[in-house]
Write a structure and sequence with these properties.
This protein has 121 residues and is α/β, with parallel strands linked by helices. The radius of gyration is 13 Å and the shape is globular.
Amino acid sequence: MSKTVMVVDDSGSFRTVVKLALQKAGYGVVEAADGVDACSKLNGAKINLIVCDVNMPNMDGLSFLKHVKASPAHKFTPVIMLTTESQEAKKAEGRAAGARAWITKPFQPSQLVDAVNRLCV
């Protein structure tokens, strides 16, 4: 059975790029448009890993990350932040909230797939 990755980003075209790279690598993909949408889709779903943007409307990526880590069902789910944010302060905030990796856009799909392969156990 393939592993399922949730992709959370407010850009539909960006989600499509990530989804295609992950599907090509054999992963199932669930898409969410922002943190609120992702929370509703996480409810009861078996998600092996989350790829999440930082800057989104309704609920940003770091707030979503904190929400995921506070949930008993998903607190051990690895989260990769995939964002244009590259400041050390943001990265430190992400690590403190529980992010396992930080990839800065623009990115190489192979770089993301490598990180997913490493963390998606």
